[in-house]
Design a protein that fits this description.
Blueprint (H helix, E strand, L loop, with lengths): L1 E5 L2 E6 L9 H25 L12 H6 L20 H20 L4 H7 L4 E6 L19 E7 L9 E2 L6 E2 L17 H6 L1 H7 L4 H22 L33 H4 L5 E3 L5 E5 L11 E4 L15 E3 L11 H17 L5 E5 L5 H13 L10 H4 L5 H14 L7 H13 L4
Parallel strand pairs: 2-4, 3-4, 8-11, 9-10, 9-11
Antiparallel strand pairs: 1-2, 5-6, 7-8
Helix pairs in contact: 1-3, 1-4, 9-10, 9-13, 10-12, 10-13
Length: about 425
């Protein structure tokens, strides 16, 4: 799904199969998440002010006023679903809201930061091609008592699959393919699109492909020159006195919302992210060649890398592919990845795990390594605690939340995460 944050709100655009008004993600999943987030924020505000108020009580407005929240009647924690969801299903969802809220809190999500930024409670709105909106009757967003999450269904209400077959732009609609940008984006990333959105939209369909090719190529050359002339990765040695990561980040409870992180360790733009003081780094393979202070590299990209390391054994190439191409590519190689990490981390070395984009496969491999070889306090123990612990999905989520606090561009796929969990729940290190 494509997301575009606006002033005090957000658009989420998706499509659905014929015969459905909205996809389930918009009818149920996103409304559930907005409600859970609202409840977590309300609990957080009550907790920090020592209040025992029930969720959604009007008297919470005093707490909201102290935090600059623009809500006069209390923080709305009710579940907002579209009319086509039955009352029976709504009641079943409401019964589990408290359970889901607790799971969000238990996994270590940074609710505090969200609570400090969000001015009004979240609420979904639904827009389709059949929606009729009178713009002169829509109030300015400043007068809304909620933060709108506008859910836009781009599919035609008739359910007819459109296609063109007369030009080079012929296409067939494939349901669910909107997030497979590697198959249609021609190398154009979201950042590049928004940077050149005006030129792309005004160029028209006849020269759109040519325009995209020019933009992608210029960006590739620009990054290549920067990588050759001024390497973007500068990693501070763990032993150096300039390390700014506080000791609390060694804990896998990871309440680091107030910690001052080293910008270079958490900025997704630099291409590499250090996971606290674990001596683990994750990033894109294009930066591995110029990475500083790296002792060993685990390359999960399809292409091999030409790197200069002290010994040949400090480099391992595991060509992995995403789960949509091979459902077991990751699970077949995780044991080798963990063994390689165990050998090097046990010698005090700093390990970089990289893949083509540093967002999916390398994140999942780091998750397996972090869970397999580190205890709950974030200390490397060669897998002793892992061998004596039954890994649950909640525990794996906590570790993933920790990784995402440093690798802010992480977006592991569900298929790859499933392979990691199957490995962790059934595999053990020697």
């Amino acid at each position: 799904m494509w997301r575009n944050w606006l002033k005090g709100g957000c658009f989420i655009v998706d499509s659905t199969r014929r015969g459905k008004r909205f996809p389930d993600s918009m009818s149920k999943t996103i409304p559930i998440w907005t409600c859970v987030l609202n409840r977590s924020i309300s609990k957080h505000l009550n907790k920090i002010h020592g209040s025992s108020l029930e969720l959604g009580e009007p008297s919470i407005s005093d707490v909201l006023a102290e935090n600059g929240k623009e809500c006069a009647v209390g923080w709305d924690c009710s579940l907002h679903l579209p009319l086509w969801v039955s009352e029976t299903e709504k009641a079943a969802i409401e019964e589990r809201l408290e359970e889901w809220t607790k799971q969000l809190e238990d996994c270590g999500a940074d609710v505090a930061t969200l609570a400090s930024i969000l001015r009004k409670p979240l609420r979904p709105l639904w827009i389709s091609q059949r929606s009729v909106i009178w713009l002169n009757e829509v109030p300015d967003h400043d007068f809304w008592d909620f933060t709108p999450i506008i859910l836009v269904n781009a599919s035609s209400s008739t359910g007819v699959v459109q296609q063109r077959t007369t030009t080079e732009f012929s296409w067939n609609y494939i349901s669910g393919a909107g997030d497979d940008e590697e198959s249609w984006a021609r190398g154009l990333t979201p950042n590049l699109f928004w940077k050149h959105a005006h030129d792309l939209m005004s160029s028209g369909p006849d020269v759109c492909n040519q325009k995209v090719a020019e933009i992608v190529e210029k960006d590739r050359v620009y990054r290549a020159l920067r990588g050759n002339d001024a390497p973007q990765i500068s990693v501070k040695s763990q032993k150096g006195s300039s390390t700014q990561v506080p000791p609390i980040e060694q804990m896998l409870s990871f309440d680091i919302s107030d910690a001052e992180l080293d910008v270079k360790s958490s900025d997704g733009n630099c291409g590499l992210s250090w996971l606290g003081l674990t001596r683990l780094a994750v990033g894109s393979s294009q930066y591995a060649v110029t990475a500083c202070d790296i002792d060993c590299i685990l390359n999960c990209d399809q292409e091999t890398l030409s790197v200069c390391l002290p010994v040949a054994s400090a480099y391992l190439h595991l060509p992995l592919v995403m789960s949509k191409l091979d459902r077991f590519s990751l699970s077949r190689n995780l044991a080798s990845a963990v063994d390689f990490a165990k050998l090097n981390l046990n010698q005090g070395k700093r390990l970089l795990v990289c893949c083509s984009n540093g967002e999916d496969i390398s994140i999942c491999v780091c998750l397996a390594i972090l869970t397999s070889l580190f205890d709950e306090e974030g200390t490397f123990d060669c897998g002793k605690s892992f061998n004596n612990t039954l890994i649950t999905k909640l525990e794996m989520k906590r570790r993933l939340v920790y990784i995402c606090k440093f690798a802010t561009n992480a977006r592991p796929s569900r298929g790859n995460l499933r392979q990691v969990f199957n490995f962790l729940s059934g595999g053990r290190t020697d």
